[in-house]
Amino acid sequence: MKAITIARKAREELNAVTLTVKGLTCEYRKQPLGIDTVHPRFSWKLESTERGALQTGYRLQVTTTQDGFEKPLWDTGQITNGDSIQIPYEGPALRSRTRYYYRIQVWDNNGQPSPWSETDWWETALLFADEWQAEWISADPLLHDPDDEASPLLRKEFEVVGEIASARLYATAAGVYEIHLNGRRVGEDLMTPGWTSYSDRLQYQTYDVTEELRQGANALGASLGSGWYKGELVWENSKNHYGNVRALLLQLHIIRTDGSEQFITSNPSWKVSTGALLASEIYHGEVYDARLEPRGWHKPGFDDSAWSSAVEIVPGVGKLVAQENLPVRVTERISPVSLIQTPNGETVLDYGQNLVGRIRLQLDLPAGTTITLYHAEILDRDGNFYTGNLRSAKQMLTYTSAGNAKESYAAAFSFYGFRYVKLEGYPGQELGEVSLEGFVAEVMHTDMPETGRFECSSGLINQLFSNIQWGQRGNFLDVPTDCPQRNERLGWTGDAQVFVRTAAFNYDVGLFFAKWLRDLRADQQPDGGVPFIIPDVLHQHSSSAWGDAAVICPWTIYQCYGDKRMLEEQFDSMKAWVEYIRRQGEDEYLWNTGFHFGDWLGLDAKEGSYVGATPSDLIATAFYAYSASLVRDAAVVLGKATEAKRYAELAERVRAAFSREFITPGGRLAAPTQTAHALVLAFGLVEGSARERTAKELNKLVTNQEFHLTTGFVGTPYLCFALSDNGYHETALKLLLQESYPSWLYSVNKGATTIWEHWDGVKPDGTFWSDDMNSYNHYAYGAIGEWMYRRVAGIDMDESQPAYRAIRIEPLFGGEKLTYAKAELDSPYGLIRSEWRRESGKLGLEIEVPVNTTATVRLPVADAGSILESGLPIGEAGGIELMESEEGFISVRVGSGCYSFVLKDEALAAEVQSVS
């Protein structure tokens, strides 16, 4: 009897549930409020205490009440597959303005079901255009000059009768807006409704205002700014790119406890005036006179008899869509680290970090006191405040006090790129009597979840990584801008495509790029040409490497997030770009005509030129071949066999034409530049002995420069990959660790806290590059981050299974100065971790593999017997499968869990420093 009991217990333990469901998301978000996707997609993550845990099935239930799972609206039943991301809703048609609840159960690889997940929810917005009952309203242009810079205030009082069950506010603007309800600001989102291709579509936001409403008298107030819609953009001193009138569209839906509803909408019954915000521009900042603030204007009972009536207008915008991207918010607050009196007698606050955001003033000053804040990135070599690189952007905030105790203000409709803030007009500032607590910096950017981290034994490299992250934060403010400070701040396509993979390591950018790529598709020219910037306010196109963002970005986002729907959305745009290239010039397989940025800011450029020495037709044709191959790959993923065949053939013909045009019969590349060699290797344009020769020549080009680079925007992202992947990893490491100009660490040693636009933005003698184009927050060269994650730390994927379902852990150990490196990536399936350390004559590698994935681990040893895992010989360790061996390397496959490998052969471990 005892034996039977023991046997039964053993079976129960064998069949015990190993999985728990966590991290539920709907359309990339947790509990999204107000989306208009009619087939939203669900994803979840799994936890297990066991190695090698997999999901073999799932069940998903949806209901309209939190306790309604007894009779769900939709029940998939048990689906037998391992998919746990991007699962689309396929139940009955969704209703507008409805909260849906969902939960998930999974089965493990023993066939055992998990407990149900916790219940989560999403809420639909307005799914149909005819549900908008509101009217666009603005100030009467006969009474309020649309060119007056003062921001309009709009208000409406209304009565609520009956007990309130819930209330939702839907709002957008031609311009940018803030809403107040009964004196309180609604939501935390900034710069709403964001920047889209307004003629194609305009976002609106959804807010839960149930707690702010009350029975009886209520008041809504809205303030409007020019923003991207009407404000000054580009460097041409031009405004009104989309329209010349700021306007509001707002709809408040109130549901009473008895089920009845009340609607409050924007219409001409609203009242309009102006207030304290006298000027607001993205480039120039704001002018605010607190004495002019109509006290209580957004509360019930305010006397608005002197205000004029709003008028209905029809702005030039496209369809209304619910918020597509994550919103811009304040994500961090930083106090000044010091107060500086410069040699010129200026009073300057130093925040210790180049950032993007605004200053939150907390003041107690006499009425009528006017202070002005000037924002800048850097001090000159004498230590004086420097704004030359801002060009015409003023980056100012002028504030006049009302004389009230503890006044608080931060710019509403502008943002600034800065590390330093100069004060003028602050009482006692010349004596250093400045309260630093009154000038806290609020960091602003799209509120992307952080997903990646990197660290190594070099403090300088760790600072470089911090600079990369801060550069992304500063420039991912609703669109991927090139820089956040001067009179530009535009969505340059070339910058976005070179950085997109690094961006997807650092932060969750799935929604961010999906939104921006819709703008690219909308602004793409009828002939397939792609504008230089997206959204397009420059009206110029098309250049190789810049326009290729139409192909590279959607493919990269698909790889990183498994987002097939986004890839499908962009596929026609991808094809259109490649077909545009095909029609250029006399030879359809070469691109040797038209304007190109070339290897922008390459250091091998001729004197006085911004364009590097690599021939533009070589760059253009190389990217042509690469984009054609990615369109082929996308067609395969989407099951488009005809297109897959067409673009496979095209890619081969372009590759052959490239070889004829740019590679000699002996295998020598015609252009003796680092960029040319890096592109040819990275894009697979040479094979066999020609590839070996090209790699050898690239290594020679770098070593001849004493391990300095000469590449610009186009070549830099591929340079270290081309070296590491072709036997010259040590050279790549020496490039990374190089401290003298030109190098990544040169700027770090010069005190940079973000990535510079120019390798020598500050010259060795402390002088600056030209004022006309010298940003100190320009993320393009931060693309080295991708190589740090994928080659130094070794976190990569098998691209045939996107979103890191099949992981590759392949760190390239080496470099005398690097004794350890580690990275983490919170992938769609869960946390991936790789950490290697070389000490005491041994090499250790610790990894973590998330549930429902597998990983291939490549180790630099010749004999499996020299490997320990968790203290055991690898053959005795559980959950490890020996796959294959090659000269000097062994690969193993592992399932989920944590693993600790030690290469115990001390002689071999010592040689690892030279392994590439």
TrEMBL record:
Membrane-spanning intervals of the chain: none
Pfam families recorded: Bac_rhamnosid, Bac_rhamnosid6H, Bac_rhamnosid_C, Bac_rhamnosid_N, Ig_Rha78A_N
Sequence ranges assigned to domain Alpha-L-rhamnosidase C-terminal in this UniProt record: 794-866
Catalytic activity: Hydrolysis of terminal non-reducing alpha-L-rhamnose residues in alpha-L-rhamnosides
SUPFAM superfamilies reported in the protein's UniProt record: Fibronectin type III, Six-hairpin glycosidases
Keywords linked to the UniProt accession: Hydrolase
Name of the top EC class for this enzyme: hydrolase
Protein's name according to its UniProt entry: alpha-L-rhamnosidase
Organism: Paenibacillus herberti
